[in-house]
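Note to self: keep these together.
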Amino acid sequence: MKANGKFLREDHRDNESIVYLPFKTEYSLFLKNLSERRALVHVDIDGKNMTKGGLIVAGGTVIDLERPANLSSGRKFKFIEKTAEISDFRGDNPEDGLIVVKWQFEKPHLNIVINPWPTTRWIGGTADWVYYGTTTNTGSAIGSSSSSAQNDVTYTSCNSASQEMPGRAAIKPQGITVEGSRSHQNFSHGYIGDLEAARYSMVIKLFGGPRPIYVSEKIQCPTCGRKWKMSFEFCGNCGTALK
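Structure:
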């Protein structure tokens, strides 16, 4: 996730990502496809689908999704506090404050290259035409286009087991995502081929915080107070687990 053009730090626990974000802050979802193949991505926010039909992310590319992916204009994602007044008016949804990202990769394409000049092989006095070629996997992509393919399936989490961040008390969702300022992000129709059977997903929980916590900031040891880079798993001074 990004806010103010910077990446937000995530706390990982119970196979979920926890992100603390001040209320009334606009944010975006940074989708990066590390595969060579295209992926069909679905994003649900507060239980509502934000990528109707799916979003095609080309292999080796990124999309900074700042609004619902439809062909018309839209407004940016904005996180606000879910007050008692809001709850009384719109009701409470168990998925409030949750961002669910689901994706599935396209099956590899077989690109068969045929030698234009056949090689002759003689068998029993007759000539058989034998074609020699190569078979390769291709990962062609068409960019950040919107696909009309539907994918109503159950996904399993791709997150590994993780530890609870020290000093973090259990809290409940406090906010919801609404429409923010006008966005100029554009989308277009696209096509994606057959998808692999493997399906993946991740869940991000948004909670209100006093200020954005960016990944560029150092993490503080809850035991001795020393600060370390985010890449550190344990405190270099006292040995306490940092994440």
